[in-house]
Design brief:
It is elongated and about 75 Å long. The protein has two domains: about 100 residues, Alpha-Beta Plaits, CATH 3.30.70; about 100 residues, no CATH class. It is built from ten helices and four strands; from the N terminus they run E-H-E-E-H-H-E-H-H-H-H-H-H-H. The longest helix is centred in the C-terminal third of the chain and has 31 residues. By secondary structure, the protein is an alpha+beta fold. The two termini are about 50 Å apart. The chain has a four-stranded antiparallel sheet.
Length: about 210
């Protein structure tokens, strides 16, 4: 189950309550008139099955509650309630398969932004991969895969395609292209330095590499 907490402008509270009550998979509806101060409005809370949350959020955004009020979503670690159990059974689909697109979009927005930290991890991962190739060390290759942050922008591109969000797609592609360009340039300088220090050699590159071939 997920817990929704909303600050709703008083004039839209009846519509929000009607929407929640008509959404299959919701329960534990609470309305606190005038409880909110910043922004001012009514506080409305409810629990919703994960598989029904995306539809409910879309309806609430349609009421512009996210613009003039607020919507927050939290995971419910434990809910001892027959009503909650019944709501999850009524909701279509399985909670394990449910995707909350607003949550996914928010996560990919943070992970697909070009930043100093992102570039540093990308450069570090590529340097580790270079060492893995030269030394024919598969463990270093796996380590580079673990350190590399490129999954975030890749997920951002996929999310942007599904959600038809061109800004997210552009930001993710910029992070990918700029990150890889910086990593390639830095790793080239790193490899030249390792070669000058006698730690990399042509013989290592031309030799047999059963682990990384």
């Amino acid at each position: 189950m997920l817990h929704l907490r909303m600050i709703v402008p008083p004039g839209r509270t009846p519509d929000a309550v009607k929407l929640i009550e008509s959404t299959v998979g919701t329960t534990h509806l609470v309305v606190l008139p005038g409880a909110a101060r910043d922004p001012s409005g009514d506080v409305v809370t409810c629990d919703v099955a994960r598989e029904a949350c995306d539809e409910l959020l879309a309806g609430l955004r349609g009421l512009r509650i996210d613009e003039d009020g607020a919507i927050s979503v939290d995971d419910v670690g434990l809910s001892l309630s027959k009503r909650a159990d019944a709501a999850e059974e009524e909701a279509p689909g399985e909670s394990a398969d449910a995707v909350i697109w607003e949550q996914l979009t928010g996560a990919t927005h943070e992970e697909s932004t070009l930043s100093v930290t992102y570039a540093a991890f990308m450069i570090l991962a590529t340097m580790i991969a270079a060492c893995g190739v030269v030394l024919d060390n598969a463990i270093l290759i796996v380590g580079a895969m673990a350190v590399g942050p490129e999954f975030g922008p890749l997920a951002g591109v996929c999310t942007a395609v599904v959600r038809r969000a061109p800004r997210l797609a552009v930001r993710s592609l910029i992070a990918l292209l700029a990150g890889f360009a910086a990593a390639i340039a830095a790793t080239t300088l790193f490899s030249l330095g390792m070669d000058a220090a006698g730690l990399f050699s042509r013989e290592q590159l031309d030799g047999a590499r059963p682990n990384t071939g």
